[in-house]
Amino acid sequence: MMKEVHVIGGGLAGSEAVWQLAMAGVPVVLHEMRPLRRTEAHQTGSLAELVCSNSFRSDDWASNAVGLLHEEMRRAGSLILSAADQHKLPAGGALAVDRDCFAREVTLRLESHPSVTITREEVDGLPHADWDSAIVATGPLTSPSLAQAVQSLTGEAELAFFDAIAPIVHRDTIDMSVCWLQSRYDKAGPGGGNADYINCPLDKTQYDAFIDALITGEKTAFKQWEASTPYFEGCLPIEVMAGRGRETLAHGPMKPVGLTNPHRPDARPHAVVQLRQDNALGTLWNMVGFQTKLKHAEQVRIFRTIPGLAQAEFARLGGLHRNTFLNSPALLDSSLRLKADPRLRFAGQITGVEGYVESAAIGLLAGRFAAVERLGDTVSPPPPTTAFGALLNHITGGHLTVKGDGAPRSFQPMNVNFGLFPPLTASPKRTNGERVSKTLARKHAFALRALADLDRWLKRGTSIAAE
Ligand SMILES: Cc1cc2nc3c(=O)[nH]c(=O)nc-3n(C[C@H](O)[C@H](O)[C@H](O)COP(=O)(O)OP(=O)(O)OC[C@H]3O[C@@H](n4cnc5c(N)ncnc54)[C@H](O)[C@@H]3O)c2cc1C
Asked: What's the CA-to-centroid distance between 79 and ligand 1, angstroms?
């Protein structure tokens, strides 16, 4: 008799992990606390309940990174994608689902699988000492007792209870004829040289217009149960700081001191927006101190008024939510195991990915890795050129951790996006003489490379059957 793997949490990630284990022939016990104990957002006892939107976002694999992740999940035999395809609704280019039918489908398929046992209980402490392999997939609303137990293993600072997300910009969309590279006072930091930041200069008129836009811009409200979320003084939303006084930002995250604009050395900027490299590839840059609750469309409109960012494309927009997530780059190994206790894997939003699809994708990988290990094989992570690999690589090491810059921690939740993929080695060709833009041709080339590499990886891996 093969020993069971335990999965804690039957949301998007946990359900997918259970399925991958079961399809590999590994017995698995799923521990889900609902309906006995609810979270603040879930309404039902169904597995894989969608707590808000019913959309899995774009389904276009050729030009959208989340669409590509859908396709990779389909090829890897994903339960979540299969149930979504079965219960999809008309939604243009997006994959939207009938949420009740979708969750019922996932629940039924897991309940009827002979290798799966489902227990409805809260795991309120560290997984039992007898469990030699467990996947923790308890999501953004992990129950407090389990969260505390995890903290006892990781250290208090390594598990956050809300996020403070600053926007991230694709490096190649920043206008360097306006901006320049320089660290404040040319000071060399522990991780690099003395020109580690991209600086965007604002004169007084531009700064005043920017402050007005922040103050009047439309904001997202906290949900009722999030209202008591404490702001850390170190990561106040930028519009809250602007509301405390018109010059607060010019003396805070936008202070211009120690910086000289080489394009206009005679004109001292009134304020400067700084961007810091966010990933080892150098493709993504983070707007320092710009965590915000402005609505996404407002962020794009307002942040594109910053000199040098007029054409900026955002890999991630800012936000602030209740969330529970690990400082994964420091804590997890490349197969999602906790370095401090390798019998535990983590999956889903708690690893620092964001969104239904990304959470399920990490669940799929955690399930496969645990299955391979249980079957006595060697785990090989997916290539970094795939959407699976790019996302996994980001949370387990690709993000550049910066310490001591005022933020409590630099690792914040991430959606999948092409900025996480290693650059292409050759310029993409435009196919069939079609009139496609350079950006579209580039995305298509990323997607073709990813799917070819994924197919090779899937062939090499254990034969977990696609349906
Ligand atoms: C209010 C809210 C709105 C959101 N809206 C969207 C959206 O519109 N689109 C989007 O893509 N993403 C959205 N997200 C993010 C989304 O929840 C996650 O991306 C996704 O559900 C995470 O999947 P997961 O499997 O990691 O966690 P979940 O799907 O939350 O699953 C975690 C499961 O673990 C269970 N659990 C928790 N603690 C324990 C315990 N101790 N023992 C046993 N079981 C436990 C929970 O009951 C739950 O079933 C939202 C999140 C929140 C909180």
From this structure: 17
User: Cβ(264)–Cβ(180) under 8 Å?
Assistant: no
Contact 40, 131 (CB under 8 A): no
Tokens coding 237: 């939303």
Does residue 285 contact residue 198 with C-beta atoms inside 8 Å?
A: yes
Find the radius of gyration of the CA atoms of the chain.
Answer: 23
Say yes or no: CB of residue 139 within 6 Å of ligand 1: yes
Q: Does ligand 1 lie within 6 Å of residue 227's CB atom?
A: no
* Ligand 1 atom at minimal distance to the Cα of residue 363: 25
Q: What is the pLDDT of residues 192-220, one digit of tens each?
A: 678 889 999 999 999 999 999 999 999 98
**Averaged pLDDT for residues 373-402:** 91
The answer to whether residues 75 and 457 touch, using CB atoms and an 8 Å cutoff, is: no
User: Are β-strands 5-8 and 134-136 bridged in parallel, bridged antiparallel, or unpaired?
Assistant: parallel
Quick check: CB of 34 below 6 Å from ligand 1?
yes
Q: What confidence tens digit (pLDDT) does each residue in 149-182 have? A: 999 999 888 888 888 889 999 999 999 999 999 9
Report how far residue 377's alpha carbon sits from residue 25's, in angstroms, rounded to the nearest whole number. 14
CA distances in angstroms from 419 to 8, 203, 282, listed in the order given: 31, 30, 9
Q: Are 325 and 352 in contact (CB under 8 A)?
A: yes
How many other C-beta atoms are found inside a 10 Å radius of the C-beta of residue 124? 13
Dist CA 291 CA 211 (whole Å): 15
Query: DSSP string covering 259-293, please?
Result: ---TTSTTS--SEEEEEEE-BTTS-EEEETT----
| 49 neighbors 137 (Cβ within 8 angstroms) | no
Q: Ligand 1: does its nearest atom lie under 6 Å from the Cβ of 8?
A: yes
